[in-house]
């Protein structure tokens, strides 16, 4: 085989380290940017960063500010609920004195979902704990005795059975009904009554008892709440229309220490020059970040002014590609600019991505958007007669009359996304609650 050495010249785009850093800064939220600048200020002596105020001052009154002399700070502390996992771990320590079963029980805890249900099959838990399946099942049986009843259930029926048994309500008839919950969803009360050797009135009485049970007992415990992030932007109504402003209250202020460099040592002088150059570049990168974010938000608000005035039904089709073309930027830059960004509006604090929406008919930028059509379907169902729910075909007719022509399969897809059952299921649900 002959070896050949050849030269070839090609053109390509290589991202420098500064370009990559600028893109990371563009994608940072205000909180991330504050943390990044604080870290940079520790390393760069030419950089001076002032962090935004952590929180506004407390108002005067009982809960803060100038408190009354008889204010009891200890009593004012919220009695925090324990987490589900801490609650279960405390009970396991008492219920399982032996190390072996307690170790298997803690493996079950790792598979416990926030609802209180078991999210992993027993076979998988047994494999993780390296024990036989019968051993794991025996431990699970003991876990079912923990409080509140219903924890570690493998299904809705088992969860409700455990609670009914704990309250002394579990009869053979109720057990049969819980084993056939699908028939309840279908409204087949007569079939259930026949299976229970009872009457439809008996089944409805059992359903009333079931409604008093908690299908998700784990949710009664404390859960880690998502942090409340301050909005990066806000939109306000002025005489000439909607205006976008940067929320500077959540932004750190940046100042570069200028002045003559009088260092005698050449190495120290070179270091300070590099530090000052790096600080100036960082300041320019943040200014470009703010300009890109503000320009992107301004375009979104201008295109979706009707949404701010009238709500989701007035969202227009708008894509990141269209915004990028208008601003003469790359679509990936727009995607980074809006990622994890919040904007404060009269309709609440919303993710900036809410302003994007695809058209119902691809390529028809003048037609309705998918979000507007979905909101219309939700409004139509919300206004229907519950005793006579609208079929998908009837929803299509009403949507077409409102100027939004939709296919029946599109209505069905939007119903699923909105969590709206079919007309048959809605009719059965109305009959059960009548």
UniProtKB/TrEMBL annotation:
InterPro entries: RNA_pol_sigma_54, RNA_pol_sigma_54_core-bd, RNA_pol_sigma_54_DNA-bd, RpoN_core-bd_sf. It comes from the Bacteria. The keyword Ubl conjugation does not apply. Residues 271-428 form the RNA polymerase sigma factor 54 DNA-binding domain. The keyword tRNA processing does not apply. Residues 76-258 form the RNA polymerase sigma factor 54 core-binding domain. Pfam families: Sigma54_AID, Sigma54_CBD, Sigma54_DBD. Keywords: DNA-binding, DNA-directed RNA polymerase, Nucleotidyltransferase, Sigma factor, Transcription, Transcription regulation, Transferase. Sigma factors are initiation factors that promote the attachment of RNA polymerase to specific initiation sites and are then released. Belongs to the sigma-54 factor family. This is RNA polymerase sigma-54 factor. It comes from Rhodovulum iodosum. The lineage of its organism: Bacteria, Pseudomonadati, Pseudomonadota, Alphaproteobacteria, Rhodobacterales.
